[in-house]
Write a structure and sequence with these properties.
Cyt_P450_E_grp-IV; globular; Cytochrome p450; 18 helices; 11 strands; alpha+beta; binds protoporphyrin IX containing FE; 467 residues; membrane
Length: 467
Amino acid sequence: MDGAIAVLLAIVVGVLVKLVFFPTRGYKGPPCVYGWIPWFGAAFQFGRSPLEFIEEARLKYGPVFTIYLLGKRYTFVAEEEGFQAFCTSKDLDFEQAVQQSVQHAVSIPEDIFYKNRSRLYSMMKGRLSTSHLHQLSGSLCREFKNYIEDLGPEGTKELTDLVRHIMFPAVVNILFGKDLFLTTRDNIKEFEDHFQNFDNGFEYATQLPACFMRKWTKSKKWLLKSFENVALHAEKSNPSDGSSKTVYQYLLDTLHGRQFGAHYGVLLLWASQANAIPVAFWTLAFIVSDASVYKNIMKELETVYGKTDKDNIRVSEDDLKSLQFIKWCILEAIRLRAPGAIVKKVINPIVVQNVVIPAGDLLTMSPYWVHRNLKYFPEPNKFKPDRWKEANLEKNTFLESFVAFGGGTHQCPGRWFAIMEIHMLVVLLLLKYECRLLDPLPKESPLHLVGTQQPQGPCRVQYKLRA
Ligand code: HEM
């Protein structure tokens, strides 16, 4: 009899503990697309067209669903309650979600990563905040003009190449230091090619063993080796006062474990270029392919620069403030080509729309699809720069539900720098050249989830000095 009472008591206590400490009781877990191969899960079906797969799963399973991929559970949230949780819940962790990818990408060990991440984040956020950008804008303008000179009086190029050949070396010189051996005329091609291999393979290389990614691994090693010299040089020439320090020198000053300076250099290089270059491409492609948008932009440029000699133009921050319409075009291009997925790790179970998402899942939000929500973005697939009239950009706020830079506390610390550099590049290029696309505006490739979408086909531009 005593035994039976003890069992009953244990059950009652158990139920009470569950009620008090596990309030998710009674909720179901999300429906899960498992696929049929152990560990790989749905990877093969998913990999054919990840962006479309996500939308099809949403239509089939509803606003919260899990896709099992390469040993991990990705739980997608596709409606407001989920976005809210993604941006604000304390039961989610950004660092734990990205640590392994960072380790694969640039070989930064786990302990070093955790020691440094939030310090580096604060440093980057400060150095690249709107109040510090004036320290970079003058030299960035000179750098852009220098590389734009190389285009000559006229020509035809792939628009992505044109943008990359200007933006890549100019931004490296600004963030890492002008006298880098890597951006000299002799070395830049090799540097750019290795970066491109590294960027192209990044998404898969952060998930798969190195043996599947030979070309990528070779470029990673080349970049890490080269950045050992960059780090050494930056340390030696590091000024004691802040006035002429580069962002990379600030990074080295902040770092615990100086021996990883080169690894963090490659990481900063990737973060600063991988999204900004395609966004600059899309912005120009959207503008030049739309006659009325292009006309508006030229009118705006005329108002600010009038008859000023185009070769002597210095694009100031005040000029950029007056060139609102171009800024709207940049933000609209970012909205339409936003990253396919951003993730945070669930550290304590959370409930979203009556579904309990277990600890260990990777909570995933797709900015690409969020930006196609009719409630926030009517005619979501249209390039409509005017919709940005509603955003309070003077106060540095975006439109509601615009999450291309992430949401909540971990938003991209480089976002204001990114917008400024793209703004400046578009102004300088369109002031100097008349441009015409020789191919129709390409669609976005459905193959990428990480970062800004890539074009699916060619997009050649013909350019000619303005009379
Ligand atoms: C239009 C261009 C850009 C886009 C769309 C973009 C987007 C993003 C996104 C989505 C994240 C992750 C946020 C999250 O998961 O919640 C991120 C993180 C980051 N971005 Fe950007 N980014 C851009 C340009 C830049 C630039 C130019 C820099 C540096 C100069 C930069 C530096 C970083 C860094 C350091 C992080 C990691 C932040 C952390 O540790 O939490 N980004 N970016």
